[in-house]
Amino acid sequence: MNIIVCIKQVPDTTEVKINPQTGTLIREGVPSIMNPDDKGGLEFALQLKDQYGAHVTVITMGLPQADAILREALAMGVDRAILLTDRKLGGADSLATSSSLAGALRTMDYDLIVTGRQAIDGDTAQVGPQIAEHLDIPQVSYLEALEFDGQKTFTLRKQTEDGYQVLQVDAPCLVTVLASAVKPRYMNVRGIVEAYDREVEVWGADRIDVAEDKIGKTGSPTSVMKAFPKSLKPAGETLEVSPEEAVEIIVGKLKERHII
Ligand SMILES: Cc1cc2nc3c(=O)[nH]c(=O)nc-3n(C[C@H](O)[C@H](O)[C@H](O)COP(=O)(O)OP(=O)(O)OC[C@H]3O[C@@H](n4cnc5c(N)ncnc54)[C@H](O)[C@@H]3O)c2cc1C
Predict the structure, then answer these.
(1) Does residue 220 surpass a pLDDT of 90?
(2) Which residue owns the Cα nearest ligand 1 atom 49?
(3) Which residues make beta-bridge pairs with 89?
(4) Terminal CA-to-CA distance of the chain, rounded, Å?
(5) Neighbours of 136 (CB within 10 A)
(6) pLDDT tens for each residue of 197-215
(7) From atom 36 of ligand 1, which residue's Cα is the shortest distance away?
């Protein structure tokens, strides 16, 4: 069984700060990590490797420094690591990101593709489902548990708003995984030492199977018009009063501020 896990390097915070002048993310001083949901997905893949001898590949699209999360994945036990990096891929929105990743996946053998449910920086939760659509394979999102019959069928538990669903899907398919579903293993000491000697394959845009107008800025139908930090609201005032008194107080406050 061939499993490919898509992993993304993200800032180690959910409080992403934005430069109010330029509208871009402030990355200085914020360490980077492997996106937590992706680490959960990687653990599911490594458990399938432990049980069935699956071959596990990780792929990331990003800047050269994303090499760090690929080496972390190698230290956790993956077999192959790919860094997809090219200026032509820069400025991609979620559609161009998924087109590029699907372009890479098209050139590889896979039974199961694993992504995180959501990246903690971009936060769209679109990339996994979009990859499945590009490749025309079934997808199950919000994965909490997974069993394999050893042949070609996965039994999957998917979180829903008010409970869960159990589904059966045949390979090849794509799943998006929740970080809360599984506790990722630690890197082992031997793995850490060896990870730095192992090869990370570096792929450019010419190595993937996708039209040039579907990648990078050209392949991005959306653009960020404005980015700004959330303004802090002052603490509100709570009053226990009748509706009539409430109307009087609200009207009084609005008059006080010359709003009415
Ligand atoms: C107009 C526009 C321009 C942008 N320009 C840039 C830019 O110049 N530089 C930049 O860094 N970002 C840029 N972004 C952000 C970039 O588009 C997102 O980071 C990317 O689309 C992933 O979306 P997400 O973070 O919401 O991922 P989600 O959809 O929330 O991620 C779900 C899962 O998909 C997988 N995944 C997502 N991204 C990757 C990846 N890169 N590699 C491997 N797996 C992945 C992971 O498994 C992840 O858990 C831009 C966005 C827009 C809208």
Answers:
(1) yes
(2) 116
(3) none
(4) 69
(5) 8
(6) 999 999 999 999 999 999 9
(7) 8
